[in-house]
Write the structure tokens for this entry.
Amino acid sequence: MPVSEAEQQGRRGALIEASVAYDGDSVCIAEARAFTRDFLTRVQAVAGLPVSTRVMGTVPLVVSELVTNAVKYAGGPCLLSLEVERGSVRATVWDSDPTLPVARAADAGRVGQHGLEIVMALCHAFEVRREPVGKRITAVVALADTPDIDLSPSAS
């Protein structure tokens, strides 16, 4: 269940950033996916930026994996921030556990624990950073299927 939510609007009233805090129970995983889909829908409708069908499926999956890890390993509150910048959506999840995740070696026989591998395969940028309290994981996905095109609101 979200405990707080904030949105900011950029030039011309276009939504470019949204964030929500969760208490860390397992229900927040589905809520984070829905929050992400709603955000991407508003990016299209309000900001007029194209969001491909692939991205409408990819970004909620990435967010789901990141929030799942926060719930599973941190066991406490987490914060999800979504931001559109230069034609990409940046999804950042903060949690209170300082342990940095490590992608495991590929193993087709392993059941489960493939989330970080999936996230890294779907994103064009990925960063894990330890914070004074916990850690912050950021994944970046291009909004359109042509990531070489600058789709930012300031582009002409």
Notes: The beta strands are 2-9, 15-22, 78-85, 88-95, 125-130, 135-142. Residues 53-74 form the longest helix (22 residues). Helices lie at 27-45, 53-74, 115-122.
